[in-house]
Amino acid sequence: VKNRCDEKNLLTTKTECMSCTLNAAVNCSEGYLKASHGSGQRDCRYFLEIRSYSLSLPGCRHLCTKEKFGGTNCEKCADDDTYGPDCRSVCDCVHGICNSGINGDGSCLCFSGYNGPKCDQPLADCAVLNCRGNKRCTMSSSGALECKCLPNYEEKSSTCE
């Protein structure tokens, strides 16, 4: 039985294009390793602004890579903000937590006071409810605002534990 760890799966990105002289000191984003050496690849152009002029100059950038999957059996996406069987889909939750990972569907669980598929719509009246103690302001099925327990918490009298 073939598993994800049997194949080398890499995520690849490039650093910003800049002067080749300055590029030697540039590092990749956190979690990524430089796959290019010295001043990087000479495959881009950058712009230098001088007064009202804009010069297009040849530049360099680094190729950066990291493992696509993580975990002891490659059962996790290496990036916490990706989901799907190939970890290529990117989460777009603004004020919430994404259902990420290999089995995730990218849906968002909104933080208190936000609503919508991307948790990008503020719920104006949530401040009045003042949800506390492991509760968040959410919209009920009837459309009314209410304080509900956060995931993995149970309601015990008036608190969530």
TrEMBL record:
Localization, UniProt: Membrane
Record's keyword annotation contains NADP: no
Assigned keywords, A-Z: Disulfide bond, EGF-like domain, Glycoprotein, Membrane
One GO MF term attached to the UniProt entry: low-density lipoprotein particle binding
Organism: Aquarana catesbeiana
Protein name: EGF-like domain-containing protein
Covalent S-S links between cysteines: C91-C108, C110-C119
Gene Ontology terms: cellular component: membrane
A Pfam match: EGF_STAB1-2
PANTHER family xrefs: STABILIN, STABILIN-2
Keyword Transmembrane listed: no
Major localisation: membrane
Signal peptide: none
All copies of domain EGF-like, residue ranges: 83-120
